[in-house]
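Human: Here is a favour to ask of a fellow structure person. Comparing notes only helps if you start from a blank page. I am asking you to supply a protein in sequence and structure-token form. Write it directly below this note and I will take it from there.

Assistant:
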Amino acid sequence: MRGAVAALIFLIGTSIPGCMGLLDSEDSGGMVAPLDVPEWEVGDWWLYTFSTPDYYDDSARLVIANTDEENGDAYMLAISSEAEALRHAVLNHNPFLGRITKDNLSPFENGVQQDVLIFPIIEGETWSFTLFSIEWTATVSSVDEEAIITASNSDGSRLDYVYDGEVGLFSTFIWTDPTGVEQLRMMLADHGSGHTGEVHFVRGGDLFNGVWEDQGNDVEIRDSFLVSDHPTDGEWDEMIYFLDADSGSGSSISFTLRDHASVSILADFWGPGASEWGTLGTIPYPSGEYTMTATFTGSSTYLKVRFSAGISQSWTI
């Protein structure tokens, strides 16, 4: 008889919200369940817009290309557009491409896993990681259907990002430098599953980045850079370049890139009033030393050039 009474008391207690250790945000002092790591499938996708201070806004559809990277411990996150894959490889502003680990959805920077998230995501949790070559200390400020996370560096840099449990990835990701300038704003526009078609990833390696403004009359800039093999994957498939140019009235800009044999492989000229923005292109099979020469005349000129090496991969899903 005593056993039956005890069992009845137990059943009544467990049926009452907040009793017997059930987790409830109102009846248990604000406690909520942690967010567990999602399981992605091939064809899952997220459409993001990317904003930076140096380049115009763009968007990219990120797609799960396969689920067996790193001996089955990581996903491959690719892009649905080959041109966008090249653009992201040379601009290097999207860290969430390529291999993403299954345990914490961690990207790789310089070949090292970086735990931007730690699962399960628990309110008040604190940890450290490196991203954009900056060391961060992250704290989870709140958890519900979403987790709000802030990471900081001693120099005043800051990351503010929101992981959406329903979406299975970030809804926002913002990097602000010590002066308060947003270096990256990544915003979710849409998401879904079942993407089909060809998707792409370009593993990039920075080679050269230069900006020249109002250089004055008859100024020549010359610089060089060396293209060697990827540290682990051998020869690069291509060199990727991205340039902006603006020549004011009465001004001009000439630009030439030559290889180690002094063969001109890229050349352009902008006369008075000419401009060109966001030009993206490739040079096949780069190797050896390259010399870049830019000549400016007039007082109103602007030139920005960026070169990266790339190894391209594609999947059909």
